[in-house]
Amino acid sequence: MTIAEQIKSELKDAMRAKDAVKLTTLRGLLAAFTNELVAQKKKPDEPVDDDMAITVIRRGVKQRKDAMEQFVKGGRPELADNEKTECAILEAYLPQMMSRDEIRTIAET
Predict the structure, then answer these.
(1) How far apart are CA 57 and CA 45, in angstroms?
(2) What is the pTM of this model?
(3) What is the distance of C-alpha 8 from the center of its chain?
(4) What is the CA radius of gyration of the chain?
(5) Three-state secondary-structure class, residue 75
(6) CA angle 2, 103, 97 (to 5 degrees)
(7) Which residues does 76 contact at the CB level (< 8 Å), separation at least 6?
(8) Which residues contact 79 (CB under 8 A, 6 or more apart)?
(9) Burial, 78: exposed, middle or buried (Cβ in 10 Å; 0-12, 13-18, 19+)?
(10) What gap in Å lies between CA 72 and CA 10, rounded to an integer?
């Protein structure tokens, strides 16, 4: 199952659970996938491969982290909390990063 298919499946689950934040976040992500396809001069209904999905998700995480920082600077912690929640939802779809110890072990061999 590709990342895009997993997101579509979880979108349905969010609808059933009436989880508004997750629902809007996943809908926005699917719209970002479509926008990326159009930007690459592909048809909007073409399948999204995992590399493109990860790129779009990373971009979304970065945008939310930047917005979080701006809201904190602007004295709006309630909006920063919302961005933090959306960021956590998106980060769940990204591959896990390796720890320093794992990298060191690989580099030393």
Answers:
(1) 18
(2) 0.84
(3) 13
(4) 16
(5) coil
(6) 35
(7) none
(8) 67, 71
(9) exposed
(10) 30
Q: 33-84 pLDDT, tens per residue? A: 999 999 999 998 899 999 999 999 999 999 999 999 999 999 999 999 999 9
What's at 72, amino acid-wise? V
Residues 6+ apart with CB under 8 A from 23: 11, 14, 15
Structure tokens at 48: 């999204």
* Tokens matching residue 89: 């939802």
Q: How many residues does the chain have?
A: 109
Residue 104: the pLDDT is 83
The pair of structure tokens assigned to 46 is: 């073409």
